[in-house]
Each structure stands twice: as structure tokens, then as C-alpha cells.
Here is the input.
Amino acid sequence: MKNLGYHLLAIAIIAIWGVTFVNTKVLLQHGLQPMEIFLLRFIVAYLCIWTISPRRLWSDSWRDELLFLILGLVGGSLYFVAENTAIGLSYVNNVAFIVCTAPLITSLLASSPLLSLFGVKPIPVPLMGWVGSLIALFGVGMVIYNGHFVLKLNPLGDLLALTAAFCWGIYSLVIKKVSVRYSATFITRKVFFYGILTVLPMFLFNPWQFPLERFQQPAVWMNLIFLSVVASFLCFLWWSVAVKKIGALRTSNYVYLNPITTVIASALFLNEPMTAMAYAGSMLILLGVYLANRKTLE
Here is the structure.
């Protein structure tokens, strides 16, 4: 099987990211705001990446530096703030479902001439890639709504969730371009830096509110460490490696697996039941992801 190890790496990353919904929910319940959670996890992750990253500060050109700025915005501050703000405005199920359209949006962007704006050549998507994506997306809906589908729209919240999905699509494709000339550690460090830089102006409109003494609570610092060191530092680094080795579209398709790990983690840690509908949806997700990535798995 070609590059099987990198496919398994991408799956492991998505499994970890699926659990982060539970970590983030716990931190929100303890009073941290979405922007505060993002800033803290990226600052710690940035300090961690410096321990293994090359000491060079700048990329080879201002154009590449601009691409890293875009990556920090769409893969960092804008993505996380849009997603977490959407959860506060809309229904969690709606947001989760819309964000999981990211692989499908990535495929649409990959075949679009608009990619030339970022210096990325269009990538043809095979028919089975579209079929697998649609099957997986249907499975995602079954898992997320868990047999209790109620369509209630909140235009602003759902638009922010869709913005997050588009951000991840752009991130997946642009990171493939820069990975040709830069190491995964250098790319990841740049993403953390520009993610931090672009979120700071947002605090002018919504200042820091979380009391510093609450960081002594184990539930706060333990979840922050997991989000910072594991879900950000290690996972963003490994994701850069996976994208470089197996491509943006194949790694993006594994995002469909996210709801499976979220539901399992919710059942284990939040006592939320996993129904037969969720099991059936999980099977469809696995089938869809396999069909979308079949050629590279055989």
C-alpha cells in the first residue's frame, strides 16, 4: 500500500482533533472565551515549535511570506474564531455539519481557476473522489444529527461555519504549495506566528475577560495543555508532513472522520449516547473516505 503510514498519520490527527471538541467545551464551561482559548493554545504551541524549528526568521521571498500570513489566518485565527463564534450563535449540530463540508469545498477549490490567486495550479478531482465525498458527507449528517434532525437556521452563525470550512479548504491547498520548498517545522512555526498575530486585533473589540487565578484549576490547565501541545503543536506539524506526502485532497478527505471520534469521546467523557443511527453513519463515512482515497490505498 502506497504511503500507508502517512494515511494512518492523517487518520490519527483527525481522531485527536475530533476529541478537541470535548476539551474546548470544558474550557468554555469554565469561562474561557473562544479567542482566549485560541490565543493560549497557539502561544504555547509556538513556544514548543521553536525547540525543533530552524532558527531562520523569514522565508525566501515576500510572496512566500504572504502565503504564510494567509495560512496563519485561514488555518488559525479566522478558522477557529469563526467556528467557535458560530457555535455560540447557531446550533452545534448545524455548525458541525457545515464545517465537515471542508473536504468537499477543498475539492471544489482544487478544480477552480481561483486557485491561481494563491499561486496554486488547479488539481483535477476524479469522479470517485466526488462520489466518496458525498457518501461520507451523508454519513456525517447521520452521525451529527444522531437520528434527531431538526433544521433551524441562523444565517450569521451558519455563514461563519461555512467561512470556517472555506478557510480549511484554502489552508489545505496553499500548504501543499509551500511544502515543496519549506520543511514542515518551518511551515508550522509560521502558521502559529501569523495565527497569533492576526487574532490580536480582535481583542480590541472583545477584551480579555478570563481571571488569571482560574488557571490553577486542573480542568483548565490540563485541557489547555492537551489543546496546545498535542492538538496544535504536534498535530499541525504532522498534518504538514501528511499533506506534503499524500496531497491536500487525500488528507482533507479524512476530515470526514472527525464526527466519529467526537461522538465516541462525547460518549466516554460527557455521557452522551451513541445511537444505531450514529453507528450506521460511521460506516458510511468510512466507506466514503475509502472510495475517495481508494487509488492510494490499494
Notes: The chain has a mean pLDDT of 79. The chain is about 70% helix and 0% strand.
